[in-house]
Amino acid sequence: MEDENHTLVTQFIFQGLPQKYEFQIVLSALLLLFYIIILPGNILIIVTIWNDCHLRSPMFFFLAHLACLDICYSCITPPKIMINLFSGSRTISYPGCMLQIFFIHFLGAAEMWLLIAMGIDRYVAICHPLRYTTVVTKALCWAMVVTSWTGGFMHSMIQVILIVPLPFCGPNELDNLFCDITQIIKLACTDTFMLEFIMFFNSGLSTLMCFLILLISYGALLVKVRTGSSKGKSKASSTCITHIIIIFIMFGPAIYVYCRPFQDFPFDKVVAFFHTVVFPLMNPMIYTLRNKEIKLAMLRLIKKYLNVGVSDGGKT
User: Residue 90: helix, strand or coil by DSSP?
Assistant: First the structure.
């Protein structure tokens, strides 16, 4: 197809994939290993919270949805990277690239909104414990979850609506492992200064502001917990620290990628790999290792199914 003597780009080429066969094997093995761990880990959290009557509090309700978002997020880029590595191909179609951008920002923004909802939940639980059950109701929890998904969808739609009209008529090489706005915008055959400025506000500054608000809020809650009464202090303090760790893991790479000019830096591909593949694994691991209730619930669930399996085997 030609339009005004310019060849329209129908696919993009990933230059960030390793060239040497040995590195391709190592990266494929790492992706497969992380993928095998991410899915069962998050599914186990969801099944445990769903089946255990002791985990009916809003905090675990939000955690189950966070695990669901991590499962969805881990299904965006790793499968395509593995397909390219196994097949030897380095390309992705234009529609496929736009879909990657849409779902990365849809699920990423939804997870950020969900973390804000979890912050609100912890604020009410620590600062207004007597009113907690009447304020943070099941209806409010569902409303905040729906708002998270809606906010993520609206954020992502803004990104895609701004990118789709761009003309791509020449270079089609992306120095990355997947498609993202920071790489795509630079390939457009037009002046994108204003668009980069809008993207910087939509993705960069909004991410930084959410990060700072959450960090200050949890810092204040942690100080309040430390200086408060001893009843429940250890548990509340541990919960706040866990949430702070998750905030750094979730927001850190996003701030690095979007809160700067859209230019290539040496660590871009490393940050992109950890952000899309490794970090979704960290959320369930951190919550599981730092929360005694979830660990005990998981042990009860595993023992329950093991006992069922043994009794069924004895009957047969």
Answer: coil
Q: What CATH number should be reported for the domain whose range is 8-302?
A: 1.20.1070.10
Non-local (6+) Cβ contacts of 83 within 8 A are 89
Cα–Cα nearest to 17, from 5, 4, 31, 7: 31
**pLDDT tens-digit series, residues 39-61:** 888 888 888 888 888 888 898 89
Look at residues 62, 144, 155, 142 and name the one whose alpha carbon lies nearest to residue 107.
155
Q: Which helix or strand (DSSP H or E) is residue 157 part of?
A: helix 138-163
**91 phi/psi in degrees, rounded to 5:** -110, 160
For the chain, give every domain's residue range.
Answer: 8-302
pTM as predicted: 0.86
CB 115 within 8 A of CB 246: yes
Give Cα 27 to chain centroid, integer Å: 20
